[in-house]
Structures are given as structure tokens and as C-alpha cells.
């Protein structure tokens, strides 16, 4: 009879542990998924901002006799612009390239339209994402315009402001959902742990009544919580990166390739899983340690 009771208790304990691990894994899987979406949303936000280029133009007055001198001057200006703080990438566009681009945009293949290259050479500049900001864009343009040899800098400031505002709004929504998922993770994992500890409330109180110290009682529960939290986090991470690998293999590899960001995400998920599990275990166990025997029947 005692053997059958022990086996029943072991099965119930095993079932309880499995339930806790699955709960932790599912919750952290969703939390990690939001983390991956947030990381890649920031990357695509920066990518879109880098597509909003500004154009710095050289002098339109061009004398073929001074072509060598002008080419050298423009090359020096191009090198200087590449070193400016706001500049992410710069592309030098010669007069010939500008004319070819104009013909292409107008659908003209012949040279009859232009007897010579009438468009000035320029530098197409992609700003760093942090400078595509309504508060910084004017300052960045002033820095570029101050370079000797540049006579004009043009950009679509209205488009930049609209894109910046829309991207900022989207990132705030994603961040808000990530915080919401973090709160849900805390609540759901805490509830699973409380149910597990609740099933052991009589064991906890019995150990206390026979003279066991609170630290001695807490120790095995904390160790078990660390193990369950680590296992649940590990399963959640395996599922997360398995799904993400499949998704990226189907869509393409145009996602964040910085392993450092993924490393910190893994640490965050592991840390959250273990920390919440341990904290919930301590709080739930401490509650029964402070309660009276009669309270155990009404908890």
C-alpha cells in the first residue's frame, strides 16, 4: 500500500514538474519571439533610414581644360565627406554618370539629346540612422554644405520626417508589446510555480514543525527551481531558434547577422526564466513557512 502511494506521489511530482517546464518554455518562447522581432525591426528601421539619401552637388560651371584639376578636387572633397560624423556611406557620381542616369530615367538610349554632359557631378550621401532625425538632420546638412567645393545640398526633408515618425511609432508599439509579454511571462510562470508549491504545503509545514530551519527547507526548492527554470528556458530557446531558422531559410537571410545581439537575447531569456522561477519559488514557499497549520487547509 505504501509503495503504491509513493509511486502515485512520484507520478504526481513528475507531472507537476513537466507542467512547470512546459509553461516556462511556452512563455519564454513567446517572449523570445518578441525579442527577435524587436531586434530585427530596429535593423530594418536603420536600413530604411539609410535609403533616404541627400545629394551634395559640385559647381555646375565646368571647363574641359581644367578637367584634371577639377577631378582631383572632387576626389579630395569625396574623401573628406566620407570622414564626416553624420555620413554612413557616400557614392561619387560623375557628370557622365549623372547624364546616363538622366537618360535612363527618361527612357532615352541615344546621345542626341545631350551634346555634352550638362549635369553637375555630385555625391550621394546616406546618413547614419541616428542623424535621420528632425532634430539633427539640419545640422548634418550644414556640416556637409560647409565642405569646400560643395555648392548645394538637397534632400527631401518632409519625406525624412514622415519616415522617421512612422518608424518611431512602429518601434514603440513593438517595444510596448515586448514589455507586455514580459509581464505576462512573470505572471504565468509565477502561477505555475505557486501551484507546484501549493501541492507541497503540508511537506513544508511538517519539516518546519520537526525543527528544520527555513534556510534548510528553502534550499532544495531553490535548487529545483533553478533546474526547472534552466530546462524550460533551454527548451523555449531551442523551439525559438528552430522556428526562426525555418522562417529565415524560407524568407531569406536579410536579418540581423550580429551574433552579439542574439547572445544577449539568449542570456536574457535564460536569466528571466531562472530568476522568475527562483523568485516565485521563494515567495510561495515563504508564504507557507509563515502560515499556521490551520491556514494550510484554506490556502
Helix content: 55-70%
Low-confidence parts lasting 5 or more residues at pLDDT below 50? Answer: none
Radius of gyration: 32 Å
Main pleated sheet = 4 strands, antiparallel
Categorize the overall geometry: rod-shaped
SSE arrangement, N to C: HEHEHEHEHHHH
State the secondary-structure class. alpha+beta
Distance between the amino and carboxyl termini: 29 Å
What is the strand tally?
A: 4
Strand content: 5-15%
The number of distinct helices, counting runs of at least 4 residues, comes to: 8
Mean pLDDT: 77
Q: How many structural domains in the coordinates?
A: 2
Strand order of the largest sheet: 2-3-1-4
Describe this structure in words.
This protein has 299 residues and is of the alpha+beta class. The chain folds into two domains: 180 residues, no CATH class; 103 residues, Alpha-Beta Plaits, CATH 3.30.70. Strands 2-3-1-4 form a four-stranded antiparallel sheet. Helix 1 runs antiparallel to helix 5, helix 1 packs across helix 7 and helix 1 packs antiparallel against helix 8. The longest helix has 49 residues. The chain is rod-shaped and about 105 Å long. The model has no long low-confidence stretch (mean pLDDT 77).
SSE layout and pairings?
Elements: H1 2-50, E1 54-57, H2 67-82, E2 87-93, H3 95-106, E3 122-127, H4 137-145, E4 152-154, H5 157-198, H6 201-209, H7 214-251, H8 259-290
Antiparallel strand pairs: 1-3, 1-4, 2-3
